[in-house]
Amino acid sequence: MHIHQLVTRLAWGDAIGNQVRYLQSLLRSWGHTSEIYADSWDDACRDQVRPAKSYPREATRDSVLLVHHSFESRQVPLIARSRGRKLLVYHNITPARLFEGYDRGAALSCDTARVELLALRPHVDGAFAYSRFSAEELAAAGYPRVDVLPFAIDWNAFDTPPDPSLMAELDDGCSNILFVGRAVPSKYVDDVLRVFTAYQRLYQPKSRLLIAGNIHRDGPYGSFLHGLKDLLGPERIQFLGRVNAAQLSACFASATAYLSMSRHEGFGVPLLEAMYRDVPVVAYGAAAVPETMGGAGLTTFSREPMDVAQLLAVLERDSTLRQQVLAAQRARVAALSQQAVATQVRNTLLRWLGARDAGPAATPTPSEAPAIELVCPGFTSRPDAPMSRLARELHRRLPDSRILALRGRGEEPVLSLGPRTSEGASVWHFTPDQPVGPAPEPLPGSSSLETAVRASSGKVVLLGTDSGVSQALLGAVGRRGWGVRDAATVTDEAATEAARHHLGAQLLELDRSDLDAVANTLVQGLSSKRGARHARR
Amino acid sequence: MHAADLLTAEPTAQAVAAATERLPEPSAAARDQLRRTLAASLRAPVAGQWPALLLEARAKADVRYVEPATSHRPLVGPVLVFAKRTFRGAFQPFINEVLRRQVHFNEAILDALTVVIENQREHARTQALWRRELDARLKQLEKDPPGPSSR
Predict the structure, then answer these.
(1) CA-CA distance, A501 to A288, in Å (whole number)?
(2) Which of residues 119-148 of B touch A (CB under 8 A)?
(3) A114 in the same domain as A58
(4) Alpha carbon A5 to chain centroid distance?
């Protein structure tokens, strides 16, 4: 069989590039013809890739194309006109809000990538994701058949001997805290710096922070990080930049702990790499991180630097606890052994390729969704909040509506999004991108909930315009959007300004003592075809 | 660290939380100082709008399309407008093709200028934070009673 892969850019050393190359080697070892097609590539990959524009010409009816999607690609027309079967492999897209204020271009590209995710839907026969977190978004986007593909990691690639000179430099008795990844805003390297500052000042003065990964010093985020380093003032912070395999091995070999405060990971290979190299992991439990950690290491829902610093201190001082953590991590890595995962990948792919309608059916698609979407992120986690009560009231009065809410803290993502009946209301639940914090902290965004609303054609009511979800949707809902603002909880004036700008007269103020008044106005407005002005007459 | 803020199977969240309780308690002064520094390091949210300096350039970046043709001349005007509109209608795809690279170049230049402007803003913001933090430390030093070495 001809099973090819399409990727926007084939890079050397990044997680997607490594995954694509490893999948190709697996496919070839199983006797399939497999090529990689890309729009652009690193020089080091020149011999491994073919230009994407040649795929429609080279594809046959029997070809299968695995389309890797993680960023703006502009490949939808090419995919649409190519012959053969196509399967989407979704790596997840970083939410645009994480780039805001630092990188306008990246933020726009992330938004476009999500538009492309919806545009790809009619052209692919099925969709894979590398985590249930990502699969949930595919189900929310209306992909009819979604499955989770095990992330095949080539563990042998991590067995490179450490660079002796770097090893000698780092092995000086200091406690080394390591982070590996590009210094981009979504990774929150600034929080890594804050946690390390707390750790060094409160618990271990003889410590060092190693940040291994490309850092764009002239970019706004790179400047911010260097300024922050001066401001916080801890000693021994090393921005190593891009490192080779031997230098990376030296970093892991000398590390006391691996620290990640990233706010978005579609999977998170470095977390497993640290586990494989016997370095205890402390990670903030955002996006797919808890799933990747699988109960091993220390996943925290707190992003308070002094709290997280305690975990680093405990791992360094309590040898029994450290050994327990390492044992759990080894068990986690053993469960993802190369052979076992390769077999799972093969079985999953064969199941899909064996029959046209293979793969589990996902939840009802947004095309079957009700006419009114009541977006109330805190409905389940803050059931007594005024917005939740208003959502219940609106749902009672508008039978063709559904409530979209965030899952509670620690709840695992599942492909069945809803409906779940809660106090007589049908509620659809979505995993938040970050753990839900205690009130009155604004509720976080949720890529899957936002995608469900974008995929729906119904009217949208944003209950609480200061939540991450509402802020992300303001620009996308246009004239079909209504919003309710609770002045008592709003702390961010910029959020209110954005809501006013996008919703205009369709933004209502909540009077906590008279929820019925807002409910009446909304019901009138939503029933009217002409919108807010007509509703208020 | 509270057990509710942890997600770990082995060791349990309770065991990890108990271990953090056993850590030596840092001094209140060290905690307060750290808290101040961390608070000073927080970055205020930045509005997502384009820098005002680039708004005009941005509006002119896409050179493929022009304002609809109009004319004030009473007789010749409508003919000219019709001719111009017909020309545009017929040749717009070719115009797009000829100017495509120019549009890409304009967008790339605008992106680069945005990065430069945002970088400058970031430097200014960091400098301001740093100055504020330095002032706070100096005030703290002035408030503290002089040590034995200064006598």
Answers:
(1) 33
(2) 119, 121-123, 125-127, 129-130, 133
(3) yes
(4) 22
DSSP code at position A504:
G
Q: What pLDDT sits at residue B49? A: 65
Residue A453 contacts by C-beta under 8 Å, 6 or more apart in sequence? A373, A375, A404, A460, A473, A476, A477
Q: How far apart are CA B62 and CA B76, in angstroms?
A: 30
Q: Tell me if A144 sits within 8 A of A362, measured CB to CB.
A: yes
Q: Does some domain include residue A9? A: yes
Assigned domain for A170 exists: yes
Which has the closest alpha carbon to A129: A395, A309, A331, A348? A348
- Evaluated on CA atoms A501, A375, A431, A17, the torsion sign reads negative
- Which residues contact residue A125 at a Cβ distance below 8 angstroms, ignoring those fewer than 6 apart? A85, A86, A87, A145, A356
Number of H helices, E strands in chain A: 20, 20
Q: Does A100 touch chain B (CB under 8 A)?
A: yes
- Count the domains in chain A: 3
Domain limits at A523? 366-536
Structural domain spans, chain B: 54-151
CATH number of the domain within which A139 lies: 3.40.50.2000
Are B16 and A298 inside 8 Å of each other by CB?
yes
Which of A224, A330, A492 to mutate against chain B (most B CBs within 10 Å)? Answer: A224
Which pTM was predicted?
0.86
Backbone angles phi, psi at A183, to 5 degrees: -80, 80
Where does A299-424 have alpha helices with state H? Answer: 305-317, 319-335, 338-354, 386-397
pLDDT tens digits for range B25-78: 999 999 998 998 898 888 765 655 677 888 888 888 888 888 888 888 888 999
Is A197 close to B8, i.e. CB distance below 8 A? no
Highest mean pLDDT among A338-342, A423-427, A531-535: A338-342
Of the residues A263, A296, A327, the one at which a domain ends: A327
